[in-house]
Amino acid sequence: MRASDFSNFIGKTILPFTNPRVVAPPGTPGHHGRPNLIVATPMRSGTHILIDLVLNNLPAYRTRPLYVDLDQCLKQARSGRDLLGAVAPDAGHVLKTHYPVGVSAALADPRFGPLIRQGIVLAIHRPRADILKSLDRWVGDTTADPETRFGGQIDAFWAFWDGVPRIDLDFSDLFDVAQMRSLIGRISRETGVPAAAAFVPPPGRNAARRIQIDKAATRLFGRHAPRINTTIHTLKG
Description:
By secondary structure, the chain is α/β, with parallel strands linked by helices. The chain has helices at 3-13, 47-57, 70-77, 112-117, 128-139, 146-161, 177-191, 208-221; strands spanning 23-24, 37-40, 67-69, 94-97, 120-125, 167-170.
């Protein structure tokens, strides 16, 4: 078994990321008196890399849970758990969303639009071909053409978010220290939240052991982990 496969097995069976220290749901959003930061991306576009950059460099946003999955909040509303109603415009969480991808139109909530427009939206642009390649690897077990299978998801995402005021980032920016320092500084100024004394970049792709340690610590200790890593699977492209 490859190291990455073993790490993913541990993450799925022993230390799942879906625990209340890491994400809502199953955690419950709190209220921290500052703007929400909304990471809005097509799938496989560096979502968790950006979430971790924010959490490691703006310590005040290290909350319990570390972030809120808006899409899952919408889906769970059908079962009667109204987590979306607990996310105030000044809740002060990092909110993650791929909306409308994977979310049925029947689950649309009138509170969703105002919530995202009152936060600071961070959107990542990754080359379409790279997204399709990564999605093809992520889903696996299919011979269908990636563009045919996933292209509509990418189009649907941008059709919704193109009308929303936001800060746009290129995928390559996530690995550019100067660009990310600038972004963290901008968020710090707009929210009044101080940045960390020392900038924490994302781990390199060859830092497998470092990634595994950080992921385990994040799932065990949540906001108290030395270095946050909320990624779900290890080294999947």
